[in-house]
Write a structure and sequence with these properties.
This protein is mainly alpha-helical and 165 residues long. It contains ten helices and no strands. It has a single domain, classed as YutG-like. 72% of the residues lie in helices and 0% in strands. Helix 2 packs across helix 3 and helix 8 packs across helix 10. The radius of gyration is 15 Å and the shape is globular. The relative contact order is 0.19. The structure holds magnesium ion.
Length: 165
């Protein structure tokens, strides 16, 4: 892994933390998604999978872009009509889900199935982000999808690795 990619990963982890999400929160989701398929699964294995996902350039680019837009919307710095679409988490906007497809697909199409599931069920921190985004002046329009997609891709990576064992 080259130095820029390493720095980018650290920057992304810091950004996620600043927006209220720890790696442990993501591990909770990945573990729940995969424990029924991989009986020997540990939280460490889930953490390693998340680390692999966060090491990918396309994942880092999606995280940087989505969090920037959420943050600008919180500060009212976007132009209309985009400002209202993002700050109100308008259900017809849809670009938040599209942006994170680049994350879902890094370990193949089962990432997409996992993403669909977490997007619907909103487990753990994803539900909290969603509720906070709706009830407070925080904007998590992109953030909930970013976390769901990272968890979905990591779950796919866990599944692929378990198959190789
Ligand atoms: Mg969203």
């Amino acid at each position: 892994m080259n130095k820029t990619t390493q720095n980018m990963k650290d920057i992304c982890i810091q950004l996620l933390n600043d927006r209220g999400v720890t790696i442990d929160d993501i591990i909770d989701i990945v573990y729940d998604l995969q424990k029924k398929y991989v009986p020997t699964l540990t939280r460490d294995v889930c953490g390693e999978a998340i680390d692999r996902v966060l090491g990918k350039r396309e994942v880092q680019n999606a995280i940087l872009t989505g969090i920037e837009l959420d943050t600008l919307a919180e500060k009212n710095l976007l132009s209309e009509p985009l400002q209202s679409l993002i700050s109100n988490d308008n259900p017809l906007y849809g670009i938040d889900e599209i942006l994170v497809l680049s994350i879902c697909n890094v370990y193949g199409s089962i990432g997409l199935t996992n993403f669909g599931y977490v997007d619907k069920v909103k487990p753990g921190i994803i539900g909290k982000l969603d509720a906070m985004g709706k009830a407070t002046n925080k904007c998590h329009t992109f953030m909930d999808d970013i976390i769901g997609a990272v968890a979905a891709a990591a779950a796919s990576s866990v599944a692929h690795n378990a198959e190789e064992d």
